[in-house]
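Section 3.1: Structural characterization of target chains.
Under the original work plan, the team committed to producing a structural model for every single-chain target entering the pipeline before any wet-lab resources were allocated. The record below documents one such target. The sequence was received from the expression subgroup and is listed exactly as submitted; it comprises 322 residues.
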Amino acid sequence: MEEDMKKIFFVIVLKIFILNVVCYGSVISDIKSFSFPNKTGKEVLILISDKISTFDEVKDSIYDSLKGYNIYTYNFQGDTNLMKELPDIVSKIKPNVVVAIGVSVLENLVGKVDIPIVFTMVINYKKFNVEKYKNIAGVSLQVPVESVFFNLKTVYPNFRKVGVICSQDYYNSFILPFVDSVKLSLEVEIVPYIISSSKDYISSYNSLAKNVDVMWMVPDTSVLDKNSIIYFINESFKNSKPTVVYSEPFVEAGGFFSVSPNYSTIGSQVALMIRRIIEDNVSPNKLGIAPVVGTFTTINREMAKKLSIDENMLGIVDKVVK
């Protein structure tokens, strides 16, 4: 089973990081020599850190939402050295708004340019202290905690305790602020198991899983690695432990339920911020960091059967796998 899970993991990686070969909109071939033709005052420069299909989905949605804007895109395809030159490149091009898609683009712009920035597809944006800069707005990649468990309760209502393994920083930033509200509104108690290294993930899973109703896997890359993911999904499936994961491919691999962002909606949210900045002259910091509005739910039919969930209940989920 473990060898099968390892194979499945690599399929997951391919699905999450698959290259999107479709060109959409105006693509820049040489970012260092680029300049906007025929400026209209609605110049938007979309900068993407790597070739990831979900990044392109966000970008395509921005194009769809901003008809009449002068939009150009450059994908760095993971070129970290070129991204280090971003402050000079952006200052030379002088767009009205820069869209930063991915952590590597954002970290090379924060505090280094005064041009308005709207970012997204960054998991732990708080480490860059983006809130202190007047020229930065963004859309968080984190699905609100209340939304995660509200959606889960629609198909699996009889749970009270949820176990989550994460670092102290992740817990403080993304979970702790919502613990009381989730307990009050949904009668769900979040039980954290704090670790500092991925080496402790498996032992902590074994200690925590037997004391909670549901296990929740969060995208805390400081403690979650390939082996942790394989073990989490493998053990949960084998022992019929309900799980909430953060991406559809993990449900395909054996996880029970996922609540992930709707990437097209994220693009629409980014586009709305761009309109507010350019057309309404709103300062980016007034827009702040918005939570994800749209979500997409996925359920594993085989796990649902193990948990004796009525087949008819699966119809309220966006996608059923297996």
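The first helix runs from residue 2 to 16.
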